[in-house]
Every structure is written in structure tokens, then in C-alpha cells.
Amino acid sequence: MTNLSNLPNEILIAILEILATVDLQSLIASQFASRRFHALIQDVIYNIQNKYAVRCEGHDSEEMRIHPLWKTKFKGLFNTADCFTATEKKRFAYLTLNGDYTLPFRRLPWAESLSQRAAYTRPEASWRNLSLTFGQAPITHLDVVKSYSAPEGDSVDYYQVDLEPSGLTMGLFFDILLCDKATYGLETGSWELILGRRLRSYDILSEYECFISDDRDLVDFGKEAPQAAVLYVRGGPVSRGFGPESRDSWVVSGSAKKRLLPWQGPIQNFIFTGYYD
Fold it and tell me: pTM value?
């Protein structure tokens, strides 16, 4: 009886490419079947990601979506509102972390089990090198927009993530969220990854002192922002304190800090020359 291991590489690769589109988790798990399978699956993953690495003309960035596997395994990291339970959503008028910024991580479906957590968080874990939008055009431009609200006034900050041409990987996104430069640490209230958005003007952001995702003067979206996304982080003073236990053993990624760059777009200098009649 013929089994998969008896098939030539060309046919196996074709089968594995189909598996990648219907069940990415099974594809990743199949790497451990043998050295041959590991090598072939690495080729399949590379081919799929490389296929979409080049921007396609007419690509509508609004059609981009986070891969379903990531939305299941990393629920709450793309929008912190998703980490709250149904009971909490009914009880709280405003879904804020209120400074407990590791809550979305602690509530990941694999975080409670120490063995699963160790498997997922090891540096060589397979998911780390996979595209956030696996099987589609990758995110090649990521803005981090931070908005802080306090009684004495509001402020904003901005970073552009230095991405490889292959785009944003799940691992880099994970590290950015654990980087204190990208959040407000204990004063983080929420964050959300908004696909199909790109900051148009840093000057207008500074003038507004807040981020409005559908403001045409401030943000490009749709076909004007191909393969782009905005990580919108909100923060402010917290009403309660958190001890070391709230941070658990989640650590800040030092390497991610180096990937956060200042505004790279055009500078608009508005010079006031006098009053209009």
C-alpha cells in the first residue's frame, strides 16, 4: 500500500500546498513527521509567502485579513476588546485594560498550560516566521499610533515599524506588543490593529492630538493604503495599581525597539505669516 512518504517530492509539495490553504495548523504540525517533511514544508511555506510578497496591481488592501489560525490562537492581541469575557463585556461600559497590559497575553488559549506556553514562546517556534496575513499579500507598512488622554491634556506619538520586504510576521507583531516603546506599559488602556490604513500626515496627527481612523485628511485607506495597517494604542492614568504578578513572566522585547522608527513620510511645515482680513 502506498503512503505519503512513498510519493515523489513534486506530488507531496502539491498536496502540502493544498493543506496550507485549508488547515495551516496541520501543515505546521506535519513538519515533525520526518526530516524530509520538515524540509518540504519549509519550501511550501517559503513559496506561498514569496508568491504574495510582491504587491499586485489593483490589490484592494481592504480585503486583507488576519489568518484565521492567528485569530484563534492569538485572540485578543489584534483587538484587546476580544480578550474580555461575555460577562465582562456586559458589566463594563468601556473595555479598558486599566493598566493590566498583559491581560490579553495571559488569556491566550495556550497561555494557561505551562507546557503549551513554553512550546509557543520558544524563539524557534514555527508561527513566528509566518506572515500575519498568510496566503494573501503581506502587510509591508505598519504605523504605530499612540494616543494618551489625561486630565491635563492629550498627546500623541508615532512610530513606523521597519519591516522586511516579505512583510509583517506574527512573531514580530507579538514582540512589538511586548515592547514598552510601542505601548504605555502599565498605563496602556487598549490597542487595535486596523488593516487597510496608513497615516497620511504626522503634522495633522500632532494638531488633532488624537487618531481618527476614517479621517481622509489624516489617514489613507483602501487603494490609497495597499498592504498597510495601523496599530492604534490608547493609554492614560490608571485607577488601580498592579503588582509584579500582573506582568507574569511576559518580558519586553529589546530587539523590537530597534525596529520602531520616527516618521518617515513628507514633512509639512505650516508657517503662519499673518491674519486674513
Answer: 0.86
